[in-house]
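G., the chain you wanted modeled:
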Amino acid sequence: MDSIKAEIAAVAARSVVEDGLDFSAAKLLAAQQLGLSSRHGLPDHDTMEQAVQDYIAIFCAESQAQELLILRGIALDWMERLARFQPHVGGAVWRGTATRHSDIYLQLFCEDSKIAEITLIDMDVRFQASQVSGLHGDRVDALSVQVWCADFKSYLGLHLLVNDLDGIRGALQSDVHGRRWRGDAKALRALMENGRHAAK
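Predicted structure as tokens:
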């Protein structure tokens, strides 16, 4: 592997774990901090994920395990509350690299994103609406909620990405190593009960 990309990944991993940055923002910041141009080429997702796992193993293995369990518990609670939308959890919470600084990402599936918005309103949940890139690269509505976490004594970001019903076909895609990018409530519950960090 390119030594410069490895160095960028190592520096970026700290920002991911300690500051909650996503991989893209962390890589750009790391390149800037190292005085490098992003045109040189940035590390890919697998390299970043490995760097994050290495950082966690060295600096916060004990605390991260408990923080991950708490975040997964919050994600599962919201998945059960929003079960009608067939929610799937993704990101660091699913992949096992989340810390107290990580946001929670749930993919929802319904005929009309307004139905999800109305559901949150009926639940008396305040949210901020925006648009982000969806499962297939198209723009989808994102409903962002600030959730109080008593364990961390702070608010967490919960992002509900609202996809069309037929988008669920791509929800369980796997990476090049055969690991799924996201899972439903049953799969997440199994991870928690088995005490496994990484998703299979």
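The chain has a mean pLDDT of 90.

Shout if anything looks off.
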